[in-house]
Amino acid sequence: MTDLLHLFRQSLAGLRLMVAATLLLGLAYPLVMTGFAAVASPWQARGSLVTSTGAHTTDPSEAVGSELLGQGNTDDALFFPRPSAAGDGWDTLSTYGSNLGPESPDLVAAIEERQAEVAEREGVAVSEVPADAVTASASGLDPDISEAYAALQVPRVAAANDLPEDAVRRLVAEHTAGRTLGVLGEPRVNVLLLNLAVRRLAGS
Amino acid sequence: MSDLAPALGQLAVLVVALAVSVPFLGRYLAHVYTSPKHLRVERAAYRVLRVDPDADQHWRSYAMSVLGFSMVGVLVLYAFGRLQQHLPLSLGFGPLTPDGSWNTAVSFVTNTNWQWYSGEAALGHLMQMSGLTVQNFVSAAVGMAVAAAFARGLARSGGHARVGSFFTDLVRGVVRVLLPISVLGAAVLILLGVVQNLASNADLTTLDGATQVLTGGPVASQEAIKQLGTNGGGFYNVNAAHPFENPTALSNLVSIYLMLLIPFATAWSFGLIVKDRRQGLAVLSVMATLLTIGVGLLTWAEMAAPGTAPQLAGAAMEGKEARFGEAGSALFAAVTTGTSTGAVNSMHDSLTAPGGGVALFGMMLGEISPGGVGSGLYGMLMLAILTVFLCGLMVGRTPEYLGKKISQREIVLVAAYVLTTPILLLAGIAVAVTASDGVAGLQESGPHGFTEALYAVASAANNNGSSFGGLTSGTPFWNTLLGLLMLFGRFLPMLIVLALAGRFSAQQRLPQSAGTLPTHRPLFVVLLTGVALVVVGLNYVPVLTLGPIVESLS
């Protein structure tokens, strides 16, 4: 009985503390950080949006996408991203990886289908299709592809845009990021920025 | 795609960053939890809260404070989830279901952060920042407080079972440790590109002419404490795989660093609190050894890519992000399951069979490599006492740890601690795979389907929070089962730890004798590592065999 009374008293003190904590940690802290972000890096704080000219913007209505978010592509004149399992593909309201296991028959079938599709699209043998081209990313919003997958797509993109392959290859190189500090992460190519550059070069 | 050299380089950067900061933070933590002085802002807080900051509580009273405070946390968060449609910044989302809201409330109060919902499709900004983020802080501070109480219990002699003041520990943990580091961490993450705003969803038109919804939210402020407090609940469904939560390889390493910082520093501070730095170092060495084994095995598994699908594709890139690759994903997976964080930057369901097994085993060890904030230390100390006891049996002497006698009552408590989580976990998996409602949630059949269920109950019982995401867990059955596992998996061990802290505090310290087993030497590090792997690990050999081991061999 005294234990219960004690528990009740402690809970009341706990309730007062929860109110204080909510004001400090649940309002003051995130709002101060939001203020800091608005001053220190407003563009990134809103989601690293870019316009069709590649310029930075914080207005979604001017943007063609976020540098950080992958988006679907159906245009054969552009680079294709990795497969996406987010909703019907690239759905930011339904981010998802396939979550299929290494022995899943569904996953094996999906990889075979994607390999055939990419090989036919790029006019190469199935064995030349890199892994990231046939595997769904974790987020379903992966903005990047590997250098190998980018290189594989260069001839098709160059031909479709009447550009010399070397020019497209240069664009790929310009949009390739290496490992941070030489060791962190993987070399990668940002698909949206690369496609914007391709459009600009082809249009000029 | 990952190469070995950069994989090792990434590890080296992490080790250097930790080696530089852990001793510093460890010293600071020891000061925070032993200093008699209060900051002015803390004094003001104690007056408003009407608590006595210098009430040196009996362990029972301390335990009641822990339970009372946590109970309030569950109720407040439950109400938040049920009423979020009436709050500002709700983004038009309705209330969570009763079972879902209960599960989420328990999940965040127990520092588990299991997520049955998808953040971007269920939660408004206020629920995220004023409901969940608050519990990210205070649930972490509760873990650190209990660890501090246990360390003080061991440090005292004839202390009348008193272990300190809970509300003082809680307030100090938040004000002096978690908040300042989170502010720094969030600022760094913002500069690295993590999103931080209060915007509602907005449409944009993609290059392809399709519409993509731009989601907003106070992500960075939540991300920093989610990693630092080993919570792990993501703002978005895909957690730290989402480019808005974890945009670059550098933000990935910062996240990993934040997860490990406090657990390792707590081990360091333990040595200082018991006035023998070598004791803290020994515990830290065991944590680091186990973590290194986990990182090594997981990285090997993902880079070697065994299994039908990875071999067909040419690499284990299903469920991984291109910017992290296999090595950056494997390191994250080993750290998130070795601590009790449970954030993910890859889909663990799609890890290779041995890789997923290592992640699972990291949780099953009780998360002591290095474990959750606070819980990692007291979990490891329980095993240290068990090790001393086992060695005492071999030489026929009454075992002692740091001058405290391990008699029958103490070892019964330790045994209860060591058995609690395995009993919860194994009972949980038995219920899950025999109930039709349990099996209904599985995405796959065979050993992988079994592993999906096993991973879920292991994650809940150990308060981890990561998942094999193919499991559909947002059902009344899974929400209830996992909620119960999280609740008992958190507070039963805590009660045992506090009871033991009280007993040690009351005991007089024995002088060292020739028969005392030194607990700071390499020999003890080896023994403790062995006990962790054998005594705890053996509980799970049968279930691991049915899941990842069979799958690895198929």
Descriptive report:
- The complex is a heterodimer of chains A (about 200) and B (about 550).
- The radius of gyration of chain A is 24 Å and the shape is extended.
- Chain A folds into 2 domains: about 1-40; about 70-205, no CATH class.
- Chain A has helices spanning about 1-40, 40-45, 105-120, 145-160, 165-175, 190-204, and strands at about 50, 55, 65, 145, 175, 190.
- The termini of chain A are far apart.
- Chain A is mainly alpha-helical and about 200 residues long.
- In chain B, the strands form 3 sheets. In chain B, strands 1-2 form a two-stranded antiparallel ribbon. In chain B, strands 3-4 form a two-stranded antiparallel ribbon. Chain B has a two-stranded antiparallel sheet with strand order 5-6.
- Chain B is globular.
- The two termini of chain B are about 25 Å apart.
- Helix content of chain B is about 65%, strand content about 5%.
- Chain B is mostly helical.
- The longest helix of chain B is centred in the first third of the chain and has 31 residues, at about 125-155.
- At the A-B interface, α1, β3, α3, β4 and α6 of A face α1, α2, α3, α6 and α7 of B.
